[in-house]
Amino acid sequence: MNILVTNDDGIYSSGIFALWEVAKEFGQAFVVAPASQKSAVGHGITISRPLFISSIKRSNGFDGYAISGSPADCVKVGIKRVLHKKPDLILSGINLGSNLGNDIIYSGTVAGALEGSMQHIPSVSFSVDSFEPKSFETSKYVIREAIKFLLKQNIPKQVSLNVNIPDCNLDQLNGLKITLQGGKYFEDDFNSYKDPKGNRYYWIKGETVDNDDSFDSDSFAVKNNYASITPISFNMSDNRIFKKLKKTIK
Amino acid sequence: MNILVTNDDGIYSSGIFALWEVAKEFGQAFVVAPASQKSAVGHGITISRPLFISSIKRSNGFDGYAISGSPADCVKVGIKRVLHKKPDLILSGINLGSNLGNDIIYSGTVAGALEGSMQHIPSVSFSVDSFEPKSFETSKYVIREAIKFLLKQNIPKQVSLNVNIPDCNLDQLNGLKITLQGGKYFEDDFNSYKDPKGNRYYWIKGETVDNDDSFDSDSFAVKNNYASITPISFNMSDNRIFKKLKKTIK
User: Fold this and answer.
1) How far away is chain A from the Cα of B37, in angstroms, using its nearest Cα?
2) In degrees to the nearest 10, what's the CA dihedral of A30, A34, A36, A39?
3) Which one of B46, B50, B241 has the shortest CB-CB distance to A231?
4) What is the predicted ipTM?
5) What is the CATH number of the domain that holds B93?
6) Of A2, A4, A5, A7, residue with least CA distance to A128
7) Do B178 and A245 touch (CB under 8 A)?
8) pTM of the predicted model as reported, rounded to 2 decimal places
């Protein structure tokens, strides 16, 4: 099995190293990842500038390509200019910090997987619910289980799985849970500054608001030490509203 | 009515000027838009750098704020630092070039509106199906009709409308049509180059593939001279697959 591995924290992240270690248990792993931190780039792609590519070596045989673009760029370049064909599987992560609720829309990690599903390639994004995870033992267990689950189930290739992993010890993990994108959001605001010339600038700040405790929500699962698996689609049509509105226009 | 106007082509685009002209027929229009071209930034936001803001004046009383970030940044800054409250309506566009099918995922124009719906503000994105539209007469007609339609219908605030306008004369327009995100996609590839030092770089290229002629698809509507209105949601959960997979895990 050919596996394309990417992320949004960049090719030198501890998370992508752990993901690569598991990926190579399942097949040949090709790492194509951003050269630098690309958090919150969403599904942006680079169309007005060129993309630079360089060969990277880390320890224990980890090698790959660093790209001067977004995770979605990495998947596109990986397919067309590294593998020269579609891989059998795309894995994105492990993101340091969860991607739950509204985060999904902003996440470069999720976009890496979603780009795969847009090209009809089975794809999974992985995030751990901590910026400084204790270890990757639980994450690695969940990645193995999620890949086995994906290979076993007949999931349409246009559906991507967004996996969030609690930062708990393996013996505290309650299992995997299939979930829906919940209502967690970021209540943002801006600090205001002036530069030495007097020009105004802002810096985003904010707080996570996570009060969606509905049983099926992604963040409720993670809070209860389940690994959350949310099937997501790049088709954003709201079918219910479509049917309702269609009746209003002849 | 307070109306926040943004786009992804930048504050000096002809498209945002035309949108502003219609917006001010409906209320007070506040323009907060990217300082430069931001096509294909998707729903990226700026979290690791500051955002600069500057006051802009164009002809005929058009004034607004230019932001050194993405359309989603502009909506966030517009709410928190320009209006200091949520507007009654957010309009994004007019994008020069359609946002149909898979384009929706990459589009900064759509993200501008989607950011509004994430904050429970009625929001519409507008794109015209040409990089060099003949005129904005048809677009302006469609914008008026779409705003009236939005105000009349009881559309949930978490749903955004993605409007695509054919580049035809007004007397050739067949009307408005409620549609679904269709299968149009970009078959991308990369040209390969070396810089003067011998470093490899790539530039994305590609061709639009548009063979989804299903009756309800967004691009089929535009091809047939209808203005396409697609209700879209930032909740990417695939409910059908959720229900199917839920049965497989206890």
Assistant:
1) 9
2) -120
3) B241
4) 0.95
5) 3.40.1210.10
6) A7
7) yes
8) 0.96
